[in-house]
Amino acid sequence: MTMKLSALLVLLLALVAVPSRAAAQSVSGLWDATVLVNNGALEVPFRFELSGSGSNVKGSFFNGDDKTTSTSGSLANGKLSLSFDELGTKLDATLTDGKLAGEYSRGTRGTPYPFQAKRFAPVTTGETNIPSIAGLWNVQVGKSSKGEAAWQLIVRQSGAEASAAILRIDGDTGALTGSYRNGTFALSHFSGARPMRLELTLATDGTLSVVQNTDNPLTALRAEQASAKGLPQPSDPTRFTSVKDPTEPFRFSFPDLDGKIVSNTDAKFAGKVVIVTIGGSWCPNCHDETPFLVELYKKYKKQGLEIVELSFEEEAQIKNPVRVKAFNKRYGVEYTVLIPGEPKELNDKVPQGANLNSFPTTFFLGRDGRVRSAHAGFAGKASGKFHTELIEEETALVERLLAEKPARTSAGK
User: What CA–CA distances, in Å, run from 307 to 24, 146, 274, 278?
Assistant: First the structure.
């Protein structure tokens, strides 16, 4: 063998023996991740997914089967960077010895969350005599910050594995997942927003101890048992919020994203059925509701439906609404979006509302501009049948309102 061929063979063997930098830095696959919240007092574990390489890396949070995927991302020299534009957030982490460590920046929503992740590894609990907690529960809360006496708790279970969602007046918590260990179902959730940890423990009397994050335990009963005992029931979202005078037209007059003032008296709304939804691009349950509104608008716009979102945002977003614009792009929003002010200004900006304290809250206006129905919150997919029923009921309501004839004007009499 010649010296030249020998040298070439050595080089080829070296290339085969040493993995490429790209291969060594591959991050594709599932990861077991955590964020620290409440100033590091609470660790919230969650599932995370990465794919791609180089300047085309994508990261995804999970909410049940739904994903929130980054709008851009890269991995270079062990530095991972992911941006989630519709959330206004960014993940920066360093890959060292197969582990990721860094922080999740929440933009204008507050201080960053410390972040860590390692490769996903299936866990076998080895538990036996696992109790059954699947079904619908009534969580007694006394009086929540919004005046509720009870919440719904929806639990699904397969052996030691379980998922759950708490449905409150403003919407659900998203799907928390986990398993049974040491006598307790430990569940958690982080979809890029609303991090939460939940511990569910079945007591000997058949009640369920419910611990959210580091809060004091609450007691839950099977829904049918709570009803039979005459215990307080969850608030009805169709009766929770109303307007002070239903005989008056619902009024709004606020700037759109271009600074143009749009009012309920504008010609585009005359004689139309109008949905006015109160939300914000920061609001997780508004992210749940928006795809439904987008589909409603596509389906019924030509029949006379208009939708107006009153998007209450932080001061920084009002000055430069980059997150709001990304939110609209992400969901394909084509209806009117107005920026009335900050969330704390809700009741000042919408003084007609009665018991208006939930994001989102949706008002349904007839062709005469008056409120015909209102719904507090939005039950997302994690709420199961409550989500399905809500979609059906609100679609039917819109169809009934569209079927009504426009009010005759004095000129037409």
Answer: 50, 26, 5, 11
